[in-house]
Amino acid sequence: MMITGKTKVLAVIGAPIAHSLSPIIQNAALQAAGIDCVYAALPVRPGALSSAVYGLRDAGVVGFNVTIPFKTEIIPLMDDLSEDARRIHAVNTVVVEENGRLVGHNTDVTGFLAGFAERRIALTEKKAVLVGAGGAARAVLWGLLRSKVSSVVIGVRNASKGAALATDFAAHGDVRAYGFDDPAFTSALGSADIIVQTTPLGMTPHVGEMPSVDVVAIKSSAVFYDLIYTPAETRFLRAAAAHGHETINGETMLVAQGAEAFFLWTGVRPDMELMKRVLREELVRRG
Fold it and tell me: Which of 115, 124, 207, 266 is the most core-located residue (most Cβ within 10 A)?
């Protein structure tokens, strides 16, 4: 594709950013859709967020993704927030409107739910267990509650972190948090329909790790979902698959949240299969 004076610019900002997969996935999708736009990764120094955001806006960038460590810090710089961004208290996608207004979105919720939709797994009235209470857990928790699950039990190492997360979302459904060794958590695992792993445990290169969840104690119809996509099958998912459980990894979530951002910026639905293929090829290349 030829870059000209008319080519529009999209970006991802974060620190560090060099390893981001977004430019590879987004540029492939832009090219396939025939959109005259280029997507770049921009490292932004901690402390320089506001000048970077306003600079991008003033330079005519049409939108950008936001990653660690700026997802929450960027909120006060927004002119408006989508409901998902407001509920999760994190922004991962910014749309720069023609009048210069900055609108913050969070496409992680849509991305997360796409993992279930792809397998035609309904969430209404299901009992969910969430492993971990970090940043990723907020998007997952809101996605589950928005999908009308009957209850969510959060398993945590840090009791106060879990309690704070449960309290934050208590108005939206039945949410409780317990330590991994609490009998109430063991009992919740026994009746769970959906188990979602949101921690970095088991991610490359620490592929031998997994959360302290006894897979054997869980009914065979339960679905296991791990947000990690490197490796494609974590030790956690491998253990679940060995007991006959349906498993979902984080690949669809990564691609679908990017596809939703693409749509917010361009009004066009990208080719998700192409985006997935490009992602897989790049992961193989990085080994």
Answer: 115
The 10s digit of each residue's pLDDT in 63-108 is 999 999 999 999 999 999 999 999 999 999 999 999 999 999 999 9
pLDDT value, residue 31:
97
Choose the catalytic residue: 6, 71, 126, 127. Answer: 71
- Give bridge partners of residue 239 from the DSSP assignment: none
Q: Are 129 and 137 in contact (CB under 8 A)?
A: no
Three-state SS for 28?
helix
For residue 111, the SS3 value is helix
Confidence grade of residue 119 (pLDDT, cut at 50, 70, 90):
very high
Give the pLDDT mean for 26-36.
98
DSSP, res 127: E
Q: Known catalytic residue: 126?
A: no
Query: Percentage helix, strand, coil, to 5, in the chain?
Result: 40, 20, 40
Query: In the 8-state DSSP scheme, what is residue 212?
Result: S
Per DSSP (E only), the strands in the chain are 8-14, 37-43, 63-66, 80-81, 93-96, 102-105, 127-131, 151-156, 175-179, 194-197, 223-226, 246-248
pTM over 0.85: yes
